Amino acid sequence: MSFFRDSRTLITGANRGIGLEWARQLAGPTDRLFATCRRPSEADQLHEIAASHPDTVDLFTLDVTDPSAIQAVVEQVQDRVGALELLVNNAGINGGGKQDRFEGVDQETMMDVFRVNAAGPHLMAKAFADLLRAGTAGRRGATDGRAAVANITSQLGSIANAQSDTWHSYRASKAALNMCVRLQAAALRDDGVVAVALHPGWVRTDMGGAEARLSPEASVEGMMEVVGDLSLEDTGRFFAHDGKELPW
Length: 248
Ligand SMILES: NC(=O)c1ccc[n+]([C@@H]2O[C@H](COP(=O)([O-])OP(=O)(O)OC[C@H]3O[C@@H](n4cnc5c(N)ncnc54)[C@H](OP(=O)(O)O)[C@@H]3O)[C@@H](O)[C@H]2O)c1
Prior knowledge:
Elements: E1 8-11, H1 17-27, E2 32-37, H2 44-52, E3 57-61, H3 67-80, E4 86-89, H4 107-127, H5 129-135, E5 147-152, H6 168-188, E6 193-199, H7 216-228, E7 238-240
Parallel strand pairs: 1-2, 1-4, 2-3, 4-5, 5-6, 6-7
The structure holds NADP nicotinamide-adenine-dinucleotide phosphate (NAP).
């Protein structure tokens, strides 16, 4: 957990599901947690976490498809802490999920899903790049001078594994996100910022459904272990929550 101690982190989509669990598990160890979501006024569970960690957790409004909202949050983070060690690009939509088959694919759904799942995280990484570069300087000797972008993708975005006629818009958007991860890695490697793709597993959330194998707790515990162990050699890699490397 040393990577998280005294680090400054921002999460998107922190009001429910996997993002809420990241907020719950990070609120303790981190020095500062910027928990963002589209409608903080409705995020009761996130407010409870913030109330238990009043000196650590800040709630910001952020829709990842809105570039001016992204910029406004960058400025808030800049003013408050001036650096970030971890950006968790978690927000995502499923675009009809299993029912989104070849015959039903439509432009509007595809574009909506791409905007949230691929363009959103990539533009977030770009917007926060300077704060992440500043994060590589380390803080009070507690972090070891690393900064990372954890992009929550899906094994459904693996082109190598794609075989069924389901989840069209979602799979294509996550494959695009995976490419964005490689491009983030290429752009940020020389500055010491790590960018990875993380598959959280099949998780019991609104998106994953009640039948899913993993609890949000177990998924995020696993992903935190992966993130905690990252080094610059890992940049541009695609890991599952249990640390296994996945095929692109
Ligand atoms: N659950 C799984 O089995 C599974 C498997 C593989 C990958 N994933 C990935 O894990 C991530 C989290 O999924 P989840 O299961 O926690 O899903 P979820 O329960 O449906 O939650 C999705 C989150 O994304 C937010 N969001 C959606 N559009 C947004 C936007 N434009 N701007 C900001 N936030 C937005 C939602 O906010 P609102 O409440 O405002 O809608 C919500 O907080 C996603 O990227 C998903 O693709 C999940």
